[in-house]
Amino acid sequence: MKYSKATNYALHTMLHLAMSNTTKPVGVQTLAEQQQVSPTYLSKILTKLVKEGMVTSVSGANGGYSLVHGWESISFLDIIYAIEGKSSLFECHFNHGPECLIQKVMLRAEEKMEEELRNQTIADLVNKETTF
Amino acid sequence: MKYSKATNYALHTMLHLAMSNTTKPVGVQTLAEQQQVSPTYLSKILTKLVKEGMVTSVSGANGGYSLVHGWESISFLDIIYAIEGKSSLFECHFNHGPECLIQKVMLRAEEKMEEELRNQTIADLVNKETTF
DNA sequence: GGTAATTTACTCGGATATCCGTTGTCCGAGTATAGACGG
DNA sequence: CCGTCTATACTCGGACAACGGATATCCGAGTAAATTACC
């Protein structure tokens, strides 16, 4: 079990957008170069972020992506959910009663992690990070 | 990102072994029937648990698997590590300085989950669980 | 009846097949800006 | 000048390919108990 590279790309892209304090949108070319990933693939990832309402895209010349108003409250968990999906990490498909104790334990542990990720925003990092 | 079915099988098998309060080893056939999984596949999973020293195997007739002495202290995390591996869930492979702030956040969150899984043992469930 | 040979019931491990999510690539379509061109 | 026309620079989204790990299956080898055969 691993977090996908896409999640890593998404987090880094969000951080990059947050730190480029410009109102103009940033082209996917620029963003892709930073992370050495193909622009087309990165655009697919960004589309997910757009659909979740974290990022806006502008078509045409001088177009690109930029953070939505109120981006300061976007948490790590929001971004991870957008890429990985919102479903639980552990699912027991056996039919041994309505409640699987093992599943309960796993979900409680997962909740602990999510709680941490929910309380951490991209904005928290902007102050600390100097170079991208 | 999902926990593998193998992890689910491993956890349920451990719980089953813990609850079958017999000194005799339990055959993989029996264990596989409980979870409706093929015996050969389950044996592969059990081999991992044997290698990590949580389970012992006895060859030959009347052979099978049984928990090691001191199994009461085996945690969820031990079992998960045995199946999924011990490596971190999130790894940033970019070369932007020695420490990636994003990675730091992810690792801290992951630690929270592992802490919970480390403090939960199979033995904890044996008392609560009545039927398998 | 005791010993040896054989059958039976298991685990172990390697090789292999299948499936599916991840990670990309390619391309056509749509869109907005910039520049060229004609009046 | 001013409006239009075209080239250019982008994003968007669907189709598709490559890859690797998860999920099995098959089979031969080893092992220990149970059973049988033999003297």
TrEMBL record, chains A, B:
<dbReference type="Pfam" id="PF02082">
    <property type="entry name" value="Rrf2"/>
</dbReference>
<dbReference type="InterPro" id="IPR036388">
    <property type="entry name" value="WH-like_DNA-bd_sf"/>
</dbReference>
<dbReference type="InterPro" id="IPR036390">
    <property type="entry name" value="WH_DNA-bd_sf"/>
</dbReference>
<protein>
    <submittedName>
        <fullName>Rrf2 family protein</fullName>
    </submittedName>
</protein>
<dbReference type="InterPro" id="IPR000944">
    <property type="entry name" value="Tscrpt_reg_Rrf2"/>
</dbReference>
